[in-house]
């Protein structure tokens, strides 16, 4: 019975490596490699060992090539996913300009004669806004407003009671920290701009 040239352990016919130390038992070719070590034939490198069956060498480059060819597809899918997320946010989830003004707002004023509730109702039709004002449930004003620089502005003719002194009323609405502030100014018949009433602060009621 043959024995391992490295450790002397007995070997069986057909073994390619020593079952004791793992040293190769194949017959080296007559020539040697450039490093001086014996050069074994291809069958030796593909033979079963105690560590398992080696994969044929011609399969390894194919697997590496498959991994390399998948990388561009993964990058493409990642780019498409990012574009889709941005598009959904821009066209669906992003709040439209002026949305913070829409709804019903109320301000309560307490005086010696009682509490007065002033209500503003703001609606949008396309790019135009409608602002309706009511005091104590009775509508007192209504104007068409436009969005300018983050605030709403509307102009309307002065009520007949002030027509001799004022020409137009200018209303500016801003929203900050969940509250709406209304500043009203009037243009006098002489062309000057003066405050018209006190600044009011409204809280959303709907």
Walk me through this protein's architecture.
The chain has 206 residues and is of the alpha+beta class. It has three domains: 1-54, no CATH class; 62-93; 99-204, Lipocalin. Helices cover 18% and strands 39% of the residues. The chain contains two helices and eleven strands. It has helices spanning 42-45, 60-93; strands at 48-49, 52-53, 103-111, 114-125, 128-135, 138-148, 151-157, 166-176, 179-188, 193-195, 200-204. The strands form two sheets. It has an eight-stranded antiparallel barrel with strand order 3-4-5-6-7-8-9-11. A hairpin with a 2-residue loop joins β5 and β6. The chain starts with 41 loop residues before the first helix and ends with a strand.
Quick rundown:
With 206 residues, this protein is of the alpha+beta class. It has helices at residues 42-45, 60-93, and strands at 48-49, 52-53, 103-111, 114-125, 128-135, 138-148, 151-157, 166-176, 179-188, 193-195, 200-204. The protein has three domains: 1-54, no CATH class; 62-93; 99-204, Lipocalin.
